[in-house]
Amino acid sequence: MEVKCPLCGSSNAQLWTEAEDIEYRTTPDRFHFYHCDRCRVLFIHPVPVDQLQRIYPPNYYSYNYRSASWVFRIKEFLNRRFLRHWSRKVPGEALSALDVGGGAGWNLTQLRQGDRRFQYTQVVDLDEQAAEQAEANGHNFYLGRFEEFAEDRRFDLILMLNLVEHVENPSQILKKAHEMLNPGGLVLVQTPNFQCW
Predict the structure, then answer these.
(1) Residue 11 in this model has a pLDDT that exceeds 90
(2) Rounded CA gap, 82 and 97, in Å?
C-alpha cells in the first residue's frame, strides 16, 4: 500500500508508530502515524475524517468549556494574550474573525475580550451541541466541515488552532482560508510539534 504525505504529496513516508485514543477512549481503533522523509510532517493515514464526531465526543473541552477552575482561568489569560499578540497585527476597525473547528467559540470569546475591534465572529464546527453554546455567546455558527462552508463575507482573522492535522488535504484548506481573507488579514495556524516536549 502506497502512503502519500497529505502536505507535500511525497510517497516517501515511513510508518512512525501506532497509537490509540487514551484521552477520551472514544474508539478502540488503532491509528497509524507516518513520517514524511521529504517535508518531515507526521500524519495519520488514513485521516479519520469520517470519524471526527465520534473521536471528539460531546464532553470534549472545546464543546463544553467551563471556566470555573483556576487552571482554566490561567489558560484563558494565556490564550487571550496569545490571540491579542496576533490580532494587533491586523489593521482596521470593526473586524471579523472565523474559527475553523472552534467548538463553542471559546477562542473567539477570548479574542473579543482581548481586542474589542472584533465585532463579527463565526464558528465552523461539526458538533451540534456546540452550536447552542456558541450562539449563546454571540457567535455565528455553521454546522459542518470547512470544506462545505460558503460565505460571501471576508474575514480579517481566521483561526485554525489544532485543526490542520485533522484534514485530508491541508493545502486545500489553507488555500480556501486565504481566499476568505480581507486584504491585510491573517490566517493563524497552530498544530502540534511532535519533536518538542
Answers:
(1) yes
(2) 15
